[in-house]
Structure formats: C-alpha cells, structure tokens
Design brief:
3 helices; globular; 4-stranded antiparallel sheet; 5-stranded mixed sheet; disordered N terminus
Length: 485
Amino acid sequence: MRLAVLVIAGLLIQAPGWKPAFEPHQRELFAAAGGQANAWADIDNDDDLDYFVAFRGRPNRLYRNDNGTFHDVAREVGLIDEVETRAAAWGDFDADGDADLYLGFADPKVPSKVYRNEGRGARFVDVAAAIGVALSGVARQPSWIDYDGDGDLDLFAAFRDGPNRLLRNERGRFVDVTHAAGIGDPRKTVGAVWWDFDRDGDLDVFTANQEGDANGLYRQTAGIFEDVAAAFGVSGVPRPPADGGVGPAVADYDRDGDFDLFVANYGPSALFRNDGSTFVDVAAERGIELHGHGVTAAWGDLDNDGLPDLYVGNFIAGQPLYRDALFINGARFTEALPDVILRSDATHGVQFADFDRDGRLDLALTNNDPAGGGHPLYRNTAPSRGRSIAVDVVDPNARRTRAGSEVRAYRAGTRQLLAAALIDSGSGYCSQNEIPAHLGISHAWAGAIDIEVITLTGGRRHASLVRNVNPSQYRERTLRIITTR
C-alpha cells in the first residue's frame, strides 16, 4: 500500500498504519492562555498524577487529580504565585516522601523559590532562602538530580542570562559548587537533560544553547565536568545567530539498548543516534525534518508497541497557530498530528502522563500565546498495539531520589530488549516530571517480562532485576522497584 505524502510548513507528513487519537479532558478547566512550565508529580501520594502549570499573565495553578477529575487547589495549598514563572521541577529534596517544587522566574530580580511539601500536598511553604537556593536570573530548565551519587537530590538550574548553577545537597541545605565542578556554562542555555551517556556510573548533562552558541555536553568524572560536545558531535555549530538549541529529550528510539538525544532547535532540529563513541544526526534519515522554531519535545510510547514516539512543540511569537509535530515511531518516523490539536497546541511545555491510569499515555500541552489554545489536557483514545507497565524507581527508603535511572524490559529469561525508558531528569524545555517510567510491550510478545533498573550511586552503575513480571497484573497501578543502593 502506498503512503499518502503531504508537505505542510516544511514537514513531511505520511499517513501511518496506526493513527493517534485524543479527546480534550475538562476543556473549560484547561482553557486559560498563558501556560508555560508543565510539571507532573503525585503530590498527595494517592497513586494518581497531579499537575502544576506555571503562567505568565495569571496566577499559577496546581491541579489535584481525584480519580481522573482535576481541581485547581493552588490557592488553598499556597502555590498562587502571580509573577511570570518560566521553570518548574518536582523533587523530594528533603527525602521525606513528599514531592517538593522548585520555581524559577522570568524577572531576574525575583529569586527562585523552593516550596516544601508539608505533607500529602495539603500545604507548601517556600524555604528557598533557608536552604540556600535563592537563585536569581532569567530562569530556564531546572533538574533535581543526584549528580554526586550520595543518595540525595542536588539541584541544577539553567539560566538565559548568566552561568548555569549546580548546588550540592548537604543534609537538606545546599552549597553552590558550580565553579569547582566546572559546569557554569555562561552561554544562553534554555534546555538541559541529564543521563549517563558514557555509562561510567555518574550523570552527565547536555545543555541546549541559544543565539548561535554551541551546545554543551558535560561529561562528569568524580564531580568534575568537561564539555565534550564537539568531540561527540552534538555541539550544533556552526549555525547563524538566529538559530540555537532549545528543547532536548532523551530516549532509546531505536531500541538498541542505549539512549539517544533529540534536540528541538531554532533552525534544523536534530536526532542524535548514540553510537557509543559518538552521536550521529539521523533526523532526516529517520523522517524527522523540522526547519522552523522547535521549542520543546517529549518522548512517549503512545501506542504501546515498545518504540517511543515524539511530540515537538513549535512556536513563533505572534503566530498562535504555528504547527506542532507528532512523530510516530516505526521503520521511520511518520508525522501524524491529529486535527483536534491543531488549534490547541503547545508553545512551551509538553508532557506525556497516564493521568487516568488506563495504560495509555495522555498528553499535556501549555501555550503562552494570548491568542493561543490554552493549556489543554488530552486523553489518549487510540487503540493500543500492546500492553504497558508503569515502573516507579525508589531508593532503599522508598523515596524518589533516582532521577536519571534507566529502566528496561526484556523477554523473561533473555536479554531480548522490548522497551526502555529514563526516569525524568529535566527533559524538554518548560517540561518536567517526577512520575513512573512508562514501558509499552508490543502484542508481538504475550509472555512474561523481566524489568531491569540501572541506578547510579557511588560512581557506579547498579542493576536491580525483577523477573517474570506479568504486565496485566499491574493495570491501574505501578510496579515499585526499591533499589538497594
């Protein structure tokens, strides 16, 4: 059968065999324009996912999820900031079992905030000054990560107008180690994502930089970072001053066991395949041809076939209907953005999250254009091409302090890889989550699976293996894996 081919706004669009389908959820609740940061976590530990949206032009919102129905509780829990908020990240910095929230602002005169969750999401209190995290600057992507492998969450914050910052967590107080670590990238960073790209047991970070600046790839060796972007082929230069990196996101798109890197760019976006010793841009070869204003990106297996799909949010100021792209992963990527999204798309935040716990990833978008389409939440209604399982990775105290951990599913008793995902460490731009990893298991395999988790502590890669898992036993609930190190 021939594929129908159409070119729209520089996108090569092919009709795939499987088509995504979405329906708006609580359309009026999510209609307000001005949405920017888009971040998910289970704030009240009731096993469903809650949703924070940062805005410009209106107060921020926190949507509590009550069995699939959302209510804005920001005012009653103390998260009602009205200053333009550009950065949000959930992380349990004090390891008390509750997700806390970092916020960064567009105004460099307004210091960052860290809202400590006082218990089950009932109240949040700003403790940034008390713990040493009152950072100033034009905020961009933050990450709660354990960069030094000592078991607690440290904080990385990117800035558009000055060096990025790295703060080490020392028993709940933070010490600025930016200069000593060599990670204070002074270029105009927008997005950042952490993962162990060289598989040496500690987290490294990619920074997407704007206005013609080269990207950074900071390889860590025992707490010291070296920029190896040029050596590994991901610097993105030369490029004109109008172009630059914006929204990076990591996934094993080709299911070969290692994690690859997509970067949404002003200019040609890039899909860097990880070849072990280097990265190779295969975007055009794989069917991803974007040459406009890519802003943010998210990977997620929408059809549960074991191959992550890719949503790219595109944006130009003054063009509220500037088209996004949704690429379905197969032999090549095929672009298949549903009509329902065309007038209610993203400009900044994109996240996949299974908010209704039906085993299919749903889609959350934030649009800050006053004439744009609000900050819609879309429920995935397409038929599934497989089963799925959500895997929650926690430390020995059952705390979520393992951002950057790798999760893989294999056919039981073998090393035949079925799916892989990363515990989020700040992917995209204006997007973040502290939620379980979602693994799609194609209908091509109906048997049991083994789940492997790789965690990074003490400068080493530690494997945890759960054998003979039946995904059907985990419908509407997660498989929690307690790592021993």
